[in-house]
Structure formats: C-alpha cells, structure tokens
Amino acid sequence: MTQQMWRHGVAAGDPLAQWRHADLLERQGRMAEAEQVWRDGVAASDRFARFRLVALLERLERIDEIEAVWREAAAAGDWFARLQLATLLQRLGRIDDAEQVWREAVAAGDRRARWRYANLLEEQGRTDEAERSWRDTVAAGDRFARFRLAALLDRLGRTDEAEQAQRDAGASCALPF
Q1: Rounded to the nearest 10 degrees, what angle do helices 111-123 and 95-107 cross at?
Q2: Separation of alpha carbons 155 and 166, rounded Å
Q3: Residue pLDDT, tens place only, 128-158
C-alpha cells in the first residue's frame, strides 16, 4: 500500500514522494529502481536527488558514474558540484584533473575555489605557485587569505615577509570599534 501511494506522488511530481519512494526501494534492495527514481529527480533539477544518486552510486562503487554526475552539474554552473568533482578527482589521485577543475573555477570567479586551488598547490609542494595563488586571492579582495599567505611565507623561512603579511592581515580584518 505504501509503495503504491509513493508511486502516485512520484507520478504527480511530488519531490517528497519521490524521495520516500526511492528510500523504500533502497531498503528493499531494489537498487536499480531506486537509482532510476533518483536519476529522474536529477533530470528534473532536484539537487537533493543528485546527492542521493551519488550516495547510492558510492555504495555500489560506481565511481565513473559519480564523476559523470558531478561533471554534468558542474558544466551547468553548479559551484557545489564543481567542488565535489574536484574533491573526488583529488581523492582518486587524479591531481592534474582536479587542478584543472580548480583553475577553471578560479577563472570563473569562484572565491571558494581560490582557497582550494592554493591548498592543492601547497599539498603538492609547489610553493611558488601557491604563493602566487594566495597573493592573487588577496588581490581579489579576500582579506583572510593574507593569514594563509603569512603562514606559507613563515613555513618557507621568509620570516620578515611573513610578519608583514600577518600585520597586513590583522589590519585588514580589524573590527571597526
């Protein structure tokens, strides 16, 4: 009875019914049917359905399909999907691919991507590029990036520059009272 009720709600376009129906199918082990419900939701631009589809694909260990889901959404301009795609690529060890995604996001003006990109460069030991990236982030108006620039300069043993960057960071983030 419950399953029939959810099917009617799904047919009527009710997202809550869609989610509950897919949950029920997953609990029953009917993964292919649940997957189709989630894919239908994704096709209808339901972001929650995208997350649930990815979660299901993760449980089924279908990583290539997860990448395709995130890539499609990122191509449509979804910043969070871009973040998830780059993070997945990093987790898979595909650093060059992740770096390209971060670079594209930075070029598109995504402030969050600037931090992720600079962090990736630091993790790779590419400190000259990371420094340039942090400086670009500061120049783009991110006051808090000065703290990260100062930390990097300190780790590189460039104490005088690090101290100046720290002072600049403190001054730029001072409270107005």
Answers
A1: 150
A2: 13
A3: 999 999 999 999 988 889 999 999 999 999 9
What pTM was estimated for this model as a whole?
0.80
* Packed helices 15-27 and 47-59: angle between N→C axes, nearest 10 degrees: 10
- List the structure tokens of 124: 């790779």
CA dihedral 72, 123, 146, 163 (to 10 degrees): 180
pLDDT digits (tens, 9 = 90+) for 82-134: 999 999 999 999 999 999 999 999 998 888 899 999 999 999 999 999 999 99
3-state secondary structure the chain: CHHHHHHHHHHCCCHHHHHHHHHHHHHCCCHHHHHHHHHHHHHCCCHHHHHHHHHHHHHCCCHHHHHHHHHHHHHCCCHHHHHHHHHHHHHCCCHHHHHHHHHHHHHCCCHHHHHHHHHHHHHCCCHHHHHHHHHHHHHCCCCCHHHHHHHHHHHCCCHHHHHHHHHHHHHHCCCCC
